[in-house]
Every structure is written in C-alpha cells, then in structure tokens.
Design brief:
615 residues; Phosphoenolpyruvate Carboxykinase, domain 1; 2 domains; nine-stranded mixed β-sheet; PEP_carboxykinase_GTP_C; PEP_carboxykinase_GTP; nucleotide-binding; gluconeogenesis
Length: 615
C-alpha cells in the first residue's frame, strides 16, 4: 500500500484543512498522482481528454463523451442520506446511519483509484460575496478527468474560492471514485454502487459511477441535498430544485423574478430558457438565471431573495430544438465549449443528433454511432426503431454561453422573488394557472405537487406521482420538518411573493389545449398583474383563475371552447384529487398542523359547492 506524505500533495495547495482532507482520502483510494485544478486548466484538460479518447471533437469548440452503457442516469435506489440522528429519516430520503455508510464506502473506495490521477477540484456553488457563501464552498476529489471538465462548466472552480473563509474548516468535502464499471453488478442484488450525502458531517461520498448526476458532487449532492440540510440546520435559507427567471417589462422598466419547481418532464428547463412570444417581443424580455437550483433567503428588508448557485447548465438533449428551446440551441452552438454525453455521434463529421432535434434522423447513416457506440448502419431489423441517443443524453455548458443570461445573474445579493410557481404534467383537473393567496396553502400546494408521468402506464390512470416541491429525489431530512422550515423562513417575510400552480398539459383526446413553450409567458404575465392588483380573476375553491379577457392573447388564435376548458376547475375531479392528497400527506412524517389546516380549507371549499365561500 502506498504511504502518502505531504510531499505527494501539490505544493500550491496551501490550505491546511484541504491538505488534510486530500491526504486522508489519498491514503484510502491510493491514486498514482494528485493534481490540483482550476478553471484555467480547462484547455489543457480538454487536450488530454481528446488524446486519451475520453472525449471526441463534436465540431469546432464542442466535445462528445460516451458513458458506460450501465451508467447513464442517477439511481435513486442507490442514493442515500446519512446522519447520526434517525429523526432525519423521511419517506423519500433513503436515510441510513452515518457510521455504517462511511465504513461501507471507505472499504469500497480503498485502493480503487490505483493507476489513476486524483484531481482536487475546489469550487464555490454561489456567486462570490453572497450572504450564503459560507455554505457554498466545497472540494471534490475525483479520479475522472471528464468529471473535472464538467465541474469546470457547472461551478466556479479554483483554490482562490476557499481563501478568506470565515471558518477555514467549514467546506463540503466530496469524494467521487468511479470504480470498475464492468464489475459493479448494476441493478442486481450485488450492486456495489452507493452515493451518500453524510449531511451532518458535510461530507459526500459517491462510488460506482462517472455519470454527471452521480459524479458532479457540487451540483445535486451539494447544491440540493447538503444545502437543503444546511439551510434547515442554520435556519437561514432554502435550497430547492427550482428554475429562476426574470421578466422585464420594457414599457415600464420594471423587472419581475419568478422561481418554481416542476417534476421531471414538466417543462422546467424550457420555461427557464423561454423567450417571449413574437407578438409580445416588443414589450417584454425574459432573462435567464437558472434552470435547476435556487437558494432562497429573507433579506434585511423582509423580502425573499434568490440566487442560482450553479455556474452552468446540465440539460437534457431529448426534444431540444429550435422550436422548443431556441435559447438552448444558441447556447450549445459551435465554439461554446459544450460537452455532449450519450447523444448519437458521427465519427466522420463530428456531428451530434438526438431524438427531437429534427423531425427525422439523418437520412445518410454513414459514420453515425448510437449512444452505445454501435454503428447505425449495422443495425438489423430488430433494432431499426431503437433510439439513436439515450433518452437521458445531456449537454453541459457554462452559463456565460446562454444568450439571454441576466446582466445581474452573478449579483451576490441575488434578486427579489416576486412569484413562486409549481407545475406538473396533468391532463385535467389543473387549470392553466391558479393563484394562491395564502402562504400555508402555497406551501401545501408545493407539498402536493405531482405529475401523471408514470401512473397511467402503471394502470393508475388519473393519479399523480407526488413530488413534493419537485424535491422528492433530493430530500435530506424529514418532509414534515422540511415543510415547517418553509413556513418559518417565509413567515419572516414583510413582502410575500405570489404563489401559483401552472399546467401547460391539459388535453382533449390526446390534443393539447394550450400551445405551450413561449406562449407560457402569457400565464406568468397574468400572475404578475394579479399580484399588482391590476386584474382580479375569478375565485374558486382551489385559488384564483384568470377571467378570459384578462389573459393577453395578442397574436394567439385560441378556440373559445379551449380557453374555457383551460380556465375551468372541475369540482368533482378535484374532490377525488383531495382524497389522494390526504393519503399522500398522511404518508409523510410530522406534517405541520398549518399544512393540514390548509388541506382542510380547500376540501371544505370544494364540499361547499366548489366556491371559495367556505374559507
């Protein structure tokens, strides 16, 4: 066994707590060498990765990577939160005792980086100088060069970000060890993969993957699970899987900021990167802040503020095209430094392709390889209709490449949040938008957020897969304490944001009633007008919906019957939904009385005939 001494650690790594952390895990993982990296190393690391065959050129200034075929997505079943207090156990956080998890992972990582370089990646998951900076500093150790290159795109990377910490020992310690991907037993009873956030020790240990969601420790493990735990433990902030966007009224000069949570496949990234409809483009501009994570806190004036802690975007490629997301398409153009993962790749031309990029795949298949690396031209009849790209294929880009990035996206003070929205994929029941005036009912709506994505296929047509606040895979303590923390933080506000629920997915026999995409801005504009008292809407048992004439439909031809359906609240269908919601809440530990009272108010209003009079 190699014995690691101070001499083996890069001399420029002078931060003593980091040196101790590196020394400890170098002794366990036994790499051949240790390298401290920063964002300035990006070009060199790209050249090394290309020379080693880890990346391929995908046009000018773009790159392509292919992961192991059994390593293409996050694994919720193999992801745990560990602490020393079983009170942190929730329904969704896969809680385990910290001592047991640390011991298991230490043994699995022992000697697992032999023959490799251990990269030391210091980073900051926030704009420098933000009030939340103490919770944003971290160091990831990884034995995978492509992971380093993606971290450079997703975070602010460099040892300088750890200098000047008030407490030099207070940073998140992350260790990522890839392991032998051919020998991990993925999906079997002998599965060796384990991805743990030891939240009360502020330590992240991930073993058995090189896929971004499992390996970019600053992103989900730190930016969501650890930060959510830190926010509750400190009482200072919320860390949520939320988009963050700005809507600028060019006529009045006022900018509004909206954040919100959406379950998977419910349009979050497309909304975060949206542009105004052409008919409204002379009046409004939409600014991008973030598509995946927001940290929220109350400022000294009692206003809710938010930042995107990430410095990049890790987007799903599938169905991204010039119509659905022109912003993303512009961001990943040649020269952008984008890293594509598990798309189809043409080894002759360097092109990439995924389902939804164009209506049909390229007609000329010469040179095209699918996401597994198999030639498309060599497919037999049984594989003719198989996807070219993996459904979870990704693109990784720095925020600076997004053309409508807000001018103040890096402001350490964040932006004032005017509205918090939730939205799920629901064919009925949910109107286009409904505003919620009561704080507890807004939090209740977030806790009962859901989408139909899986239940129809499982024979439970009409029920939702509940995804509280869109945080179901990312909870780090019990859901009841989480809800109480939301109520406590927002209860300190002097100026509360508007709450609303949106739904772009109402259908009539398979036909969508709302065109979606850029047109979704019209619903948000109504919400902001409602917040300002410029429109009144119509009160229902589940919130306030727009009156038809209050929506700005300039340039949009929408059948009158469709508009009525979009704004309708189906009382009997909602009464059925309330039964499901009661069952869902009853399965979550320690739900606060305020949330149950909100549930009962909505149920009583529905029982009174669907009006709001029972409140």
């Amino acid at each position: 066994m190699a014995v690691w001494t101070t001499a083996h650690i890069p001399a420029e790594l002078r931060h003593e707590s980091v040196r101790q952390f590196v020394r400890e895990w170098a002794e366990i993982t036994e790499p051949d060498r240790i390298e401290l990296v920063s964002a300035a190393d990006d070009a060199r690391l790209l050249e090394e990765a290309l020379a080693a065959g880890e990346l391929r050129q995908a046009g000018v200034g773009r790159f392509y990577a292919r992961s192991h075929p059994h390593d293409t997505a996050r694994s919720e079943a193999r992801t745990v939160v560990a602490t020393s207090d079983e009170a942190d156990r929730g329904r969704y956080d896969n809680w385990q005792p910290a001592a047991e998890v640390r011991a298991t992972l230490t043994e699995r990582m022992r000697g697992a980086s032999r023959g490799k370089t251990l990269y030391v990646v210091p980073y900051l998951m926030a704009p420098p100088g933000t009030p939340l900076a103490p919770y944003a500093a971290g160091v990831e150790l990884t034995d995978d060069r492509t992971v380093v290159l993606q971290m450079v795109r997703m975070a602010r990377v460099g040892i300088e970000y750890l200098e000047g910490l008030v407490d030099p020992d207070f940073f998140v310690r992350g260790v990522h060890v890839t392991g032998e991907l051919d020998a991990l037993g993925q999906g079997t009873e002998e599965d060796q993969r384990l991805f743990a956030t030891i939240a009360d020790e502020r330590t992240i240990l991930h073993f058995g993957s090189a896929y971004g969601g499992n390996a970019l420790l600053g992103k989900i493990a730190h930016g969501l699970r650890q930060a959510s735990y830190d926010g509750q433990a400190s009482g200072r902030f919320l860390a949520e899987q939320f988009l963050l966007l700005g809507i600028r009224d060019l006529e009045t000069g006022r900018t509004y900021h909206v954040c919100g949570g959406f379950p998977s496949a419910s349009g979050k990234t497309n909304l975060a990167m949206t542009l105004p409809p052409d008919a409204l483009g002379a009046r409004y501009r939409v600014d991008f802040y973030g598509d995946d994570i927001a940290w929220l806190w109350v400022d000294e004036q009692g206003r809710l503020r938010g930042i995107n802690p990430e410095n990049g975007a890790f987007g799903v490629a599938k169905d991204t095209n010039d119509a659905t997301n022109p912003t993303a398409m512009a961001a990943i153009a040649e020269g952008s430094g984008t890293i594509f993962t598990n798309t189809a790749y043409n080894e002759i031309t360097g092109e990439v392709w995924w389902e939804g990029l164009t209506p049909e795949p390229p007609a000329e298949v010469e040179g095209w390889l699918d996401w597994r690396g198999d030639p498309i031209a060599g497919r037999g009849p049984e594989r003719r209709d198989d996807p070219w790209a993996h459904p979870n294929s990704r693109f990784t880009i720095p925020l600076s490449r997004i053309p409508n990035l807000a001018d103040d996206a890096d402001d350490p003070d964040g932006v004032v949040i005017d509205a918090v929205i939730f939205g799920g994929r629901t064919r009925d029941r949910e109107p286009l938008i409904r505003a919620i005036d009561d704080l507890a009912e807004g939090v209740y709506d977030g806790l009962t957020l859901g989408a139909e994505a899986t239940f129809a296929a499982e024979g439970l047509d009409g029920q939702l897969r509940y995804d509280p606040m869109s945080m179901r895979p990312f909870f780090s303590y019990s859901e009841g304490r989480y809800a109480k923390h939301w109520l406590d933080v927002l209860g300190a506000l002097n100026v509360a944001p508007a709450f609303a629920h949106v739904n772009w997915f109402q259908r009539d026999e398979g036909r969508y009633l709302w065109p979606g995409y850029r047109e979704n801005l019209r619903a948000l504009l109504w919400l902001l007008q409602y917040r300002e008292g410029q429109v009144t809407g119509t009160r229902t048992a589940v919130g306030v919906v727009p009156q038809p004439h209050e929506l700005d439909l300039t340039g949009l031809e929408l059948p009158a019957g469709d508009l009525s359906r979009l704004l309708e609240v189906d009382g009997p269908r909602w009464a059925e939904e309330m039964g499901y919601r009661h069952e869902h809440l009853a399965g979550l530990p320690d739900i606060p009385a305020e949330i149950w009272a909100a549930h009962d108010r909505v149920a009583a209003a529905l029982a009174a005939g669907g009006s709001d009079d029972a409140r």
